[in-house]
Amino acid sequence: MKIAIIGGGAAGLMAAITAKRLNNKIDIDIFDINKAVGKKILASGNGRCNISNTEISFENYIGENPAFVIDALKQFDFNAFEKFCKTIGLILDIKSSCKVYPLSNEAKSVVNLFENELINLGIKQILETKIVKIKKENEKFILQSLNKEFNNYDKVLISSGLQAAPQLNSTEDGISIATSFKHSFNLTYPSLVGLHTDFEYKSKLQGVKKESTVSLYIDKQKQKEITGDVLFTKYGVSGFAILDISQYAVYPLSLYQDVAISINLFPNLTKNELLGILENLFKTLKHSDVFTALSGIVSRKLALVILEMNNINKELKSKDINAKHIRAIVNSLTNLRFKIEDTQGFKHAEASGGGVRTDEVDSKTYESKFCKNLYFAGEVLDIVGNRGGFNLHFAWASGYLAGKSLAKQ
């Protein structure tokens, strides 16, 4: 039996190794557009590779049907993944945050060990090859690259991902191939990505970073609230809280809905508590200007913008500021609100949302419901995980289930 795997990322690598271990008689070819497999793994976790998470449920995933992941997570949970890693010599470092990294703290070691296992198992890597079309004739699959044809495959796995990080040659060719077999797909969008805002003072706040609570509003209705770091940038906002909230903001934005966020820069204080702190601050520094006083609780950049937003002269003496001014400052610090206009795009996204519709794929085998012996795994499917190792874990788990299916005669 001859098998083709399109895409040598996490899902494809796991599928290949799983299938070959279960059935040593099969021949497996992995096709990848890059000079080596695992390019996106190398880029994950800023090169450290946040490889998994010890606390995983379907609630960590987004898509048309997040429950699609349940079977994969049951069969290939974190314990199963850890056992697999030991068989290829990969030792894991489990953090108190539940995030998991290689003990080497280096993504390169992850890729090297997977490559080593491919070689040990005799799995062929066909690199720098872009598969653009697949046909099925007489129960055999024919793969076409830009300049060559590859014949007589009994089974094919599409694990080529989506468009996130196009600088790593990411494409949506998997969707194109899926549609040629009558599959449909949901609109793709960048996920875990910085957001562009209409905030007129954004360039003045560039570089300011603060733990905040970010609230997301879709068509003026509050949808989500996340607390974490917010980083102000020249284009808008980034930071962990923004990357997390982007997962719920970008799809509505792509549908031209009204998307806005509110940032509470003091999530651990009530408005009254913050009001009291400011009143005491201005009394204590009554002979200083309000800019100097306000700089006691926020960065100087932020203090300047808050005063400018509320038409308060920065040289005004603290003793002369009135109650109305203080309430306005409190409101700005706890409800800094602006519209989202765009994202940083696929180039700066950690993942892609959307993809091949999961109701057209068997959740237990990852086989197409439309074409026998055609399989899908990983990011090409309409499943995207939260930040923290969840996307890679779905790639491993879906690749494992697909690999079990590929091994069967």
UniProtKB/TrEMBL annotation:
Gene3D superfamilies per record: FAD/NAD(P)-binding domain (3.50.50.60), HI0933 insert domain-like (1.10.8.260), Translation factors (2.40.30.10)
Domain RsdA/BaiN/AoA(So)-like Rossmann fold-like: start-end pairs: 2-404
Pfam families named among the record's database cross-references: HI0933_like, HI0933_like_1st
Keyword Flavoprotein appears in the UniProt entry: yes
Entry keywords, A to Z: FAD, Flavoprotein
InterPro entries: BaiN-like (IPR004792), BaiN-like_dom_sf (IPR023166), FAD/NAD-bd_sf (IPR036188), RsdA/BaiN/AoA(So)-like_dom (IPR055178), RsdA/BaiN/AoA(So)_Rossmann (IPR057661)
Residues of the RsdA/BaiN/AoA(So)-like insert domain: 189-350
SUPFAM superfamilies: FAD/NAD(P)-binding domain (SSF51905), HI0933 insert domain-like (SSF160996)
Cofactor(s) needed: FAD
PANTHER family associated with the record: OS12G0638800 PROTEIN
Stated name of the protein: Aminoacetone oxidase family FAD-binding enzyme
